[in-house]
Amino acid sequence: MPDKIEKRIEELREKIRENDYKYYVLAEPSISDFEYDKLLKELEKLEAENPQLITPDSPTQRVGKDLTKEFKPVTHKVPMLSLANTYSEEELFDFDRKVRNGLPAGEKIEYVVEPKIDGASVSLNYVNGLLKTAATRGDGTVGEEITANVKTIKSVPLKLKKLKSYKYKLNDFEARGEIFMKIKDFLKLNKEREDLGEKLFANPRNSSAGTLKLQDPKVVAKRPLNIFLYMLISIEEEFEFQFENLKILKELGFNVNPEFKLCKNIDEVLKACRHLEEKRETLEYEIDGAVIKVNSIRQQGILGSIAKSPRWAVAFKFKAKQAFTTINKITWQVGRTGAVTPVAELEPVFLSGSTISRATLHNFDEIKRKDIREGDKVILEKGGDVIPKIVAVVLDERKKDSKPAKPPDNCPVCGARLYKPENEVAYYCENTECPAQIKGRLEHFAARGAMDIEGLGEALIDLFVEKEFLHTYADIFDLKKRQEELIAIERLGEKSVDNLLRSIEESKKQPFEKVLFALGIRYVGSGAARKLADHFLSLDSLMKASEEEISEVHEIGPSISKSVREFFSNDKNLKIIQRLKDHGLNFRAQKKSTVNSFFTNKTFVLTGTLLKFSREEAGEKIIALGGKVSSGVSKKTDYVLAGENAGSKLDKARSLDVQIITEEEFLKFLKEK
After folding, report:
1. Which of 22, 72, 108, 116 is catalytic?
2. Is the pLDDT of residue 206 over 90?
3. By CB count within 10 A, which of 112, 329, 457, 494 is most buried?
4. pTM of the predicted structure, to 2 decimals
5. Domains of the chain and CATH, by start
6. Is 116 a catalytic residue?
7. At CA 145, angle to CA 492 and CA 43, rounded to 5?
C-alpha cells in the first residue's frame, strides 16, 4: 500500500508540474482550473496523511508558512554585472567596432538580440535538478536570498525537466532572469488595491521588486509575478553559445522569452532591434530596449568585463514612450528648503507601465518657456522611461479663453509671502515652520544616505507631523517617550513601533559626514558634507569657521560657504543641534592619517571607465593618500587619470598640457605610495 501511495503522489506531482509548465510558461493550458484544483487537493490530502513523503520540490511546497525575518546575504559565484546603455545606431556600430578590436583578427562574430525586460533581476541556483536558492542582484557581488518568495512563482520550476538534446550534466548551475508582471496583471492588482482603499503601485517593475522583499510568502503568492530566464552559468561546464544556452533553458522547463534572435552581423542586429521596438506596444509586458550579446561564450571570455559591465554585451534603449493628456490644474508644492515647485495635475494616462496623474514643471521659467497653461492638451514623455515630463503643448487644440499661468504670491501650504532671490528661478516660502518644509526636512534627515532610519518614511512622517509628535528632526529621538501613544495608532502596533525605535537608536552610529548631510543645509550634498567633515573633523570647528575659511576647503565654493554660515547663525538651528548632541549623535570624525606619497596635495581629474575600480573608488583612494579629486580640468589640475572611452576632459587636458596617466600607471603609483 505505501508503495502505491508513493507512486500516486509522484504521478500527481508530475501532472501538476506539467500543467504548471503548459499554463505559466507555454500559455497553452490543457486542463480546466477545476481539474487542476482536483489534482492539487488530492496531492495535499495524500501528503497530509503521509508527511514522511513530502519533498521540497513538491508543488504543495511553493508557499512556505514561515515569515522571512531577514534576507541573508548571498555572494554570487560570478558577478551580476549591469549593462552599458546605447541610444543610437552610431553607438551600436561603436560597440561592434570595440568587440572586433578586442578579438583576434579574422574571428567570425555573431550576436544574440533579446528583449530588455523591465523587471527585477534574480539568480536561481539549481543543484541536482532542484531549486536550492534564489537571490537578488544586490550590488552585483552580494545579493539577498529570496528563495521562499521566488518559490511561489509558478513559472519557476522547483524540479527541472531532463536535458536530452545537449551534452551538459548541469549538476550545479545558475539561471539568471528578470521577474516581472504582465501589464494586464499589474492593472488588475492595482484595481483590487484601489477597491480595498490601499495605496496603488507606481509601475510593474517597482511592484515586482517590492513584492520580492515581502516577509510573508503567502502574500507574495497572491501577487501575479512571472519570470523570463536569459542566462545560464556554471563553473563546472564549458558552454559554447548564448543562443544554445537559451534553448537549453527552454528544454529544462524555464520560461524563456520567445523574441530572441541570432544575428550574423551588426546590420542584422539593428534590424532586430527596430523590429522589437515596433512590436513593443503589442507585447503583454514592459520592455525598455533590446540586449545585444556576443553569441560565442569563448569570445565573451576573451572580451571580459570592465568594473561594472561586460564588454561583450550592451543594452540598446528604445526612444521614450509618449502619450497625450490634459492639464487639469497647475498646483505648487513646497520642498524642505522652502522652494516652491509647480506641478501639472493631469488627466490620468497609462504610459510605460504606470498610470501618470502628475508631472513636475520644474520652475516658473519652464512654464513660460513652453507656454504651459491649465486646460492645455500636452505631450507627455517618460525621461529614461522613469520620470514623466511634459514635452510640448498641442497649441492647435488650446481653448480660446485660455490664460497664461501665474506664480502664487503666497505659500500654498502656510500662506506666508513668497520671495524670489535675484539670479534664481525658484520662488521660496520664508516660513521655516511651514508644515511642508518640516515634512521635507524630516524625510531628508531619515533617508538612506543620511541617517538611514528604516521604517520612518513619508507616510509615517506625515502622520507624526499632523499629530504634532514631530516639529524638528531632534523630535525623532524623543519618540521613544511616546511609545504607548505610537502603539495605540491604528496599523502600527507594538512590533512595528519596536522596530522603528530600534532603527532610530541604531541611526546614532552614523558617521559625522552622514549626520552633517542629514541636517539639510542648502547646497550641502553628500559629497560636500564629506569634504567638510574630513577638513574640520567636528561640528564645533565647522560652526566656528568663517565663510572665507569654509571656502578654502577644496571644491567648496562661495554658495556653499555662505549657506553653511547662515545655517549656523540661526538660533533655532543651534538649539536643534544642541538637542541632537544631547541625544548622542556623532558630530566628530577621526583624522585620516596619511603619509607623504605621490598623491599628497596633487589634484586629479578622473575620466572614462576604469577596469579595476569604479571612478568613486579610485577617487577615495586618492583622497585617502592625501590627494584631491576635482570634477573639471583646469590649469591647476596635476593629473588626469584616463580610462576607456575618455571624452572631452581628456581633450581639454591635452589642450592645457596637463599630464595624463593610464590606469596601469595609477596602479603603479598606488603600490609605491
Report:
1. 116
2. no
3. 112
4. 0.59
5. 2-61 (1.10.287.610), 85-317 (3.30.470.30), 322-419 (2.40.50.140), 435-509 (1.10.150.20), 512-582 (1.10.150.20), 603-672 (3.40.50.10190)
6. yes
7. 90
